[in-house]
Specification:
The complex is a heterodimer of chains A (about 150) and B (about 250).
Chain A lengths: L1 H33 L12 H30 L5 H26 L11 H32 L1
Chain B lengths: L2 H26 L5 H15 L5 H5 L4 H21 L2 H8 L2 H12 L1 H7 L1 H17 L2 H7 L1 H23 L10 H24 L7 H33 L2 H11 L1
Classes of the chains: A mainly alpha (about 150), B mainly alpha (about 250).
Chain lengths: ~150, ~250
């Protein structure tokens, strides 16, 4: 069936988008606003860093809202596959967290995770969590596919 | 300083016209919802704050107030006004010949070019880059004519951009939702990048602390209003893609 194939992919798209938005939101709310670890702009950023930050910030708002509307769309079509969706959320979160941790923090130097501390362990945990999320996400998506075959 | 009195007169004129249009449209159509009148009036009043009253007064020497004014005039007021659908109301209120003339204007090549999402985004965000990264910002505080033109542009470009994203009024030659979303993400990125750029590079004659506060207000305030526009856009998309219509239409086509 062509339709169920589309909806299986839409489960991944919706989850992935929401995952990206979720991590961006946690980053903004927890690390910028509550902990004040991240800085708005620490003036050591490259031009590309500013462009990348602006672009992903814009994209993350759309990803959150669009991902949730897609979720509602899957529900009204009774095509939601919860395991697959949750897996995609983890995948999206992990990918964006890794991009933030490696490219934006390290390569573009937008800002660091925290200031006045040995940053190595923070980076290690940050990116380690990202890799774990990606692995768990792929595992869940894989599992949801296998379940379908068994059925 | 006649600018604020002039703006006040225009605002009264606009609200009066809207009320009159409501009266005429009710002759041949269902009554125009009061909710939209409320949107229109709040849009006008909020936009007015940037040119008359305390915010406008402080904006001459404080960048933060200048930014509050711009958020209201260039983003919030246009959003409220676009949602009040003034052109739809106008089309309903005018006699047939007048309505045809208005829709001819809207279908003209010039209007088509202006309402194209990319043109609207460039006019809106490009105008801001021009204002804050060139001497224009400095001239704006020297001459009240330049100041008035800048305000006019900020409002008109904000309105055009919001309309080009939401299509709440009859716009011919519409772009798809995906197209508009992509343009929107680029425009929002341009807005965010400019805010961070201003954080590090204050416009001429602005103290660093004032610029940083203003830049952060621009960043987060802009986010809040743009988030509303994204939510409305996605909501429209979600409704347009409802399975009932699309599935039955697809079945009918088979």
């Amino acid at each position: 069936m062509e339709d169920s194939h589309t909806y299986r992919r839409r489960n991944v798209l919706s989850g992935f988008l929401f995952g990206v938005g979720l991590v961006a939101f946690i980053d903004e709310a927890v690390f910028h606003q509550l902990l004040h670890w991240h800085h708005f702009y620490d003036l050591s950023s490259t031009t590309w860093g500013l462009v990348s930050d602006g672009f992903f910030h814009a994209l993350s708002w759309f990803a959150t809202v669009g991902g949730l509307f897609l979720f509602a769309d899957l529900r009204r079509r009774r095509s939601l596959i919860p395991l697959r969706w949750v897996g995609a959320v983890m995948l999206g979160s992990g990918v964006f967290q890794l991009y933030d941790g490696l490219i934006q923090h390290k390569l573009f130097r937008i800002h660091q995770i925290r200031y006045g501390v040995d940053i190595f362990y923070y980076d290690l945990i940050w990116n380690g969590i990202a890799v774990l999320l990606i692995a768990a996400g792929i595992w869940c998506i894989h599992l949801s596919r296998r379940k379908e075959h068994v059925r | 300083m006649y600018v604020d009195k002039f703006a006040l007169c225009i605002a009264f004129f606009c609200i009066l016209s809207y009320l009159l249009a409501m009266k005429y449209s009710a002759k041949s159509f269902k009554a125009w919802p009061l909710r939209k009148l409320l949107l229109f009036v709040s849009g006008i009043v909020i936009g007015l704050q940037a040119v008359a009253g305390p915010i406008a007064m402080h904006a001459h020497h404080s960048f933060v107030y200048h930014m509050i004014g711009h958020l209201l005039l260039g983003m919030l007021a246009p959003l409220l006004l676009v949602l009040s659908q003034p052109v739809t109301l106008l089309l309903r209120a005018l006699p047939q010949s007048g309505g045809r003339a208005v829709s001819r204007i809207f279908r003209s090549r010039y209007a088509r070019f202006l309402i194209h999402p990319i043109t609207a985004a460039v006019l809106n965000i490009g105008g801001l880059w021009l204002l804050y990264t060139t001497h224009l910002f400095h001239y704006m505080h020297q001459s009240s004519l330049v100041s008035m033109l800048v305000h006019l542009h900020i409002f008109a470009a904000g309105y055009l951009f919001t309309l080009a994203m939401l299509y709440t009024d009859p716009v011919s030659y519409r772009k798809s939702y995906l197209y508009r979303v992509i343009v929107f993400v680029f425009a929002l990125a341009g807005h965010g990048i400019l805010s961070k750029y201003l954080y590090a590079n204050p416009p001429m004659g602005i103290a660093a602390a004032d610029a940083q506060q203003g830049a952060m207000l621009m960043y987060y305030g802009g986010d809040l209003i743009d988030l509303t526009i994204i939510a409305i856009l996605c909501w429209q998309w979600y409704q347009a893609a409802a399975p009932k219509t699309s599935l039955s239409a697809a079945k009918a086509a088979e």
